[in-house]
Structures are given as structure tokens and as C-alpha cells.
Amino acid sequence: MVTIQDYLNSGVIDVVPLLSLALNKSHAQLIAYHDYQLNNEEKTQLNQLIKQRQTGTPFAYLSGKKGFYHLDFKVTPNTLIPRPETELLIDIALDLFDKNQIYEVLDLGTGSGIIAVTIGDKNPQWCLTATDFSIDTLNIAQQNAKTNIKFQLGNWFEATPNQTFDLIISNPPYIKQDDLHLNDLSFEPQSALVSGKNGLDDIRTIIDNAPQHLNKKGYLLLEHGFDQQQEITQLLSHNFFKIQKFKDYNHRNRAILAQIK
Ligand code: GLN
């Protein structure tokens, strides 16, 4: 006989959320029913989840969802798992324009859709477009949408020919290809993480092409690596001004906002 309490005592990584997931019970219910004896089917399912978690599968890929800002998002191994630091981009974007006026906003490389979906839900007046180069990923984003968002397939601005926006936002891949941190991220799509030798290949592409896709006084807002702010400022200085830099909640340089000259 194995009870919930036996599992709670086991010291297994993420045992509480894994029990919640396998038994479909809240944390409070697990405590209340701690004497409950798992049947064979429940044990098999839970042990399988524990094994996957212990061999490195992120919990979000086991539960199939992850919270971001005020919403829950469906995620699959085709999508990057939403990171709390990306919430910074939402705060910056929501502060930028009047909530009740109409603005064209683009989320480039949307992944699970977190940026476009969150902003669209907060400010339904704004017109959101979201792109991704992967059709599987774009399908997930579409399933996560709460409001009317235009989803367009393509690599960076190839997805938005002849379109212009008031604000372009992106959390592109920005990790250096030989960064050791990547060893911890092997379950996530590498195309959403890695961007060439110094992590700046995609950021450079976006900065170079954004001017053709920005309306007068339009803004570009990017998430980036903690050590990339200086190089990105340099890349932006050609076509952009009023550059503002932001730190994430761990006090690391994480985002940059610039207006087209
Ligand atoms: N912030 C993520 C990480 O370091 C990377 C996300 C990205 O490359 N856009 O885990």
C-alpha cells in the first residue's frame, strides 16, 4: 500500500505538483487526503511522471501549461517555457501607449504566444499581430489566444511583408552557441534559445529590419542577455534614439526600448 503521505515524505523533486497532476487534486486536497491509498493505475502514472521529471523534463512539459502574467498558457516541447523575466516586456509595453486608443503592435517570434496574448487581453483596443517561423508553434499560440490576434507564419519580418506597426516587441533567441547554460535547457527548442556565436544574430536581424516596419515615432522593444546591453545600444544607435534600458527583477540588464529616428 502506498499513500499520498508516503510520496510526500519521499523527497522526490516536485513531488507536490506531480501528485497534484497525477491525482488531479489541489495541494490542500493532498494534505486533507494524505492517507489516501493510490490504486495501481495512479501509481504507474505518477511513477512515470516522477521518472520523466528526474531525468530532466521540465515540469511545464509534463503538465502542459505554465502561468505567465495573469494567464495560464498551453506549452509543448515546440515552445519555449515562459520565463518570469519576460513579464518585464509586458509592463513596459502597457506603460507606453494609451490603453483606450488603437495601436498596431507586433510580437515577433511569439512562441506560445505569451506577449501578444497577454497584451491583447489587457488592452483589447490594441491590434495585435504575432508571428513565428514554426507552424506547430503558431498553432499553440493560436490556441492560447483570448482575443482576436492576427497570426502570421514566417521568419522574423518575412512574416509581415509591407506591414508597419507602432510597437514591435520580441523575445528572440539570444544565448551564445557555446554557453554552458544551454546544458540545462536541452528539453526546450534550441531555435528559440541559441543565436550564433555571440547570441546576437537574431537581434541584429530584427534591429536592421525593424525601421521598414515601424510607423512614425514607432518603438522597438527587445528582451536580451544580461551582458548584451552595450552591443545592442550600439546596433540601435544608427536608426533609433531615446534608448531606454531596463533591468529584470533579479537586477540584471534584460530589456531595451528605442524609438525610430
Ligand atoms: N531567458 C532565457 C534563458 O536564459 C532565454 C530566452 C531567450 O533566449 N529568449 O533561459
What would you say this structure looks like, in words?
The chain is an alpha/beta fold and 261 residues long. It has 2 domains: 52 residues, no CATH class; 198 residues, Vaccinia Virus protein VP39 (Rossmann fold). Helix content is 33%, strand content 21%. The chain has 10 helices and 9 strands. The strands form 2 sheets. It has a 7-stranded mixed beta sheet with strand order 5-4-3-6-7-9-8, with helices on both faces. Helix 6 packs across helix 7. 37% of the residues are buried. The mean pLDDT is 97. The protein binds glutamine. The site of glutamine (GLN) has 8 residues, from loops. Glutamine binds next to loops.
Shape, principal axes of CA atoms: elongated
Order the strands across the largest sheet as they lie in space: 5-4-3-6-7-9-8
Overall mean pLDDT stands at 97
Bound small molecules, deduplicated = glutamine
Radius of gyration: 21 Å
> Would you state the CATH class of the largest domain?
Alpha Beta
Number of domains: 2
Classify the fold: give the CATH topology of the largest domain.
Rossmann fold
Helix-strand sequence: HHHHHEEHEHEHEEHEHEE
Q: Number of helical runs?
A: 10
* Secondary structure: helix percent: 25-40%
Unreliable parts: none
**Strand-residue proportion:** 15-25%
The CATH level-2 architecture of the largest domain is identified as: 3-Layer(aba) Sandwich
